[in-house]
């Protein structure tokens, strides 16, 4: 999966926040002063994918967002606006995604001191470790935290 663009309307200090990713680069690194929103962006991405994979167990997102990404050459745009999904600019009228190409895993590498990011991915960490050990696949996204202690 390759992110193309993320828009976050209002999550913590991310207000009308948009980031466009360079399609030529393999890796994106976020550098900034304390309080600039780096950790909040990671948290928001975790919340976005939990919302997308949702189901009845996952809480709905309390902020509007729009995310576009590409998987194996297939571009997808998912928007959550006012409690409903829009897929590739069309309103689904639903609170669940349906049949859309989604990533199996999201890898989070975080080298900060904020426990909020660690806690945001904690729920999926053990499940991801088991998946790697057994070589099995599962439905839903799993977050594999790679956290560098300070």
From TrEMBL:
InterPro entries: AAA_GajA/Old/RecF-like (IPR041685), Bact_Antivir_Def_Nuclease (IPR051396), P-loop_NTPase (IPR027417). Residues 1-118 form the Endonuclease GajA/Old nuclease/RecF-like AAA domain. This is AAA family ATPase. The lineage of its organism: Bacteria, Pseudomonadati, Pseudomonadota, Gammaproteobacteria, Oceanospirillales.
């Amino acid at each position: 999966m390759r992110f193309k663009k993320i828009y976050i309307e209002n999550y913590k200090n991310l207000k009308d926040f948009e980031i466009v990713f360079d399609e030529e680069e393999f890796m994106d690194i976020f550098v900034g002063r304390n309080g600039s929103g780096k950790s909040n962006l990671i948290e928001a991405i975790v919340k976005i994918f939990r919302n997308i994979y949702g189901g009845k167990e996952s809480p709905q997102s309390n902020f509007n967002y729009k995310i576009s990404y590409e998987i194996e050459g297939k571009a997808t745009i998912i928007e959550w606006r006012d409690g409903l999904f829009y897929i590739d600019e069309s309103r689904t009228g639903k609170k669940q995604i349906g049949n859309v190409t989604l990533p199996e895993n999201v890898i989070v590498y975080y080298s900060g001191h904020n426990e909020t990011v660690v806690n945001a991915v904690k729920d999926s960490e053990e499940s991801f470790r088991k998946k790697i050990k057994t070589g099995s696949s599962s439905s839903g996204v799993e977050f594999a935290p790679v956290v560098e202690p300070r």
